[in-house]
Amino acid sequence: MSPLWRDQIEVFFAPGRLDLVRSKRGLKPVQLPVVTELIHNTQPGQPDWLQPMQQLERILSESAGTGMTVTLSNHFVRYVTLPPQTEITTPEEVFAYANFRMREIYGTRVDHWSLSISAWSPVYGAICAAISQELLVKLEEAAKHHHSKLNGIEPYLAAVLDKWIKSLDRRKSYVALVETGRICVALLENGIWQSIRNQRVLQDVADELLAALDQEAVLSGEKEPVEQVFLFAPEHPALTLPDDSGWHMVPLQTETVTVPMHYPIPVSNKVKEDACPA
Fold it and tell me: Which residues contact 190 (CB under 8 A, 6 or more apart)?
């Protein structure tokens, strides 16, 4: 089937939910409403991605022949920054550098991960993301089995940065991406990504976000009396920090640069809820 006529599905893939938008191609392309499927994890000891994967398989069985793009929740991704190194220039050298940086932090777990690297610059460095090789294989197999074309798999943080990078201050920007159960905080300084913190939310999201921001600011060595943080939290539209917290929040999403439809937002009563089989 020609890609021009293949329906397209955009998927947000998270531990407890799938969000999908299907665009029907043809003479008059039509974008269908968002479908959100909530998933109750009932298999202790299994990977967090197993049941969302089963749900996605079912959806693809009813949508054979589509093109598919997947945005992966930060629950399934690990990140490291790659500080600039002027002597590193070839793709092979960049990959070896990324592999070394990952192993410094995560050890032998990297043996079971697939690495992806943003555009490398010897002057500004890059970001490396890692996902489970098994998850990657399952996504590729599901697409092939249902005659779908897998157009791409992108980590949530990478997708947000790609879309909003021009909104950031390259001199210094904290970026906070908040989703259900997870916070990701990144620091850009002088065009170089200095750090990325990707952690679970165990209790109150505002308290833990403030603690994570304060820790990153202290580690940077240059905490200003009031720092600016670019916030992306479509699942938490009411999220705020205290006025005296030392942080000024700037929403990334605006009227001109809106949130992609398949990104997760608060669940309403109209959402379709579907529990996966055990």
Answer: 170, 171, 172
